[in-house]
Amino acid sequence: MFIDPIREMEAFLTTEEVLIYLRITPRTIYRLIRSGELPAVRIGRQWRFRRPDLDRWLERRRAFSASSV
């Protein structure tokens, strides 16, 4: 079975998948969503996340942490 890497990158992640990917608690995820800090899309009653958006968010946080040291 062939998996298209472009399609895989654009696929939406669930909250559970983001919990594992970022290694943070549900409470932290929802706090970051409410503050507008974490890029997310609400589809019905559930939140969805794109991995490239999360990767860019992580890079910005790393750059900010490195510049504040």
Secondary-structure content class: alpha+beta
Share of helical residues: 55-70%
Share of residues in strands: 5-15%
Nearest-integer average pLDDT: 88
Number of helices: 4
* Largest sheet: number of strands, sense, barrel closure: 3 strands, antiparallel
- Taken in chain order, the helices and strands follow as HEHHEEH
User: How many strands appear in the DSSP assignment?
Assistant: 3
The strand order across the widest sheet is: 1-3-2
Low-confidence stretches: none
Give the N-to-C terminal Cα separation. Answer: 46 Å
- Gyration radius from CA atoms, angstroms: 13 Å
Dominant shape: globular
Verbal overview:
A three-stranded antiparallel β-sheet has the order 1-3-2. Strand 2 and strand 3 form a beta hairpin. The chain has four helices and three strands; from the N terminus they run H-E-H-H-E-E-H. Helix content is 59%, strand content 14%. It has 69 residues and is an alpha+beta fold. The longest helix has 17 residues.
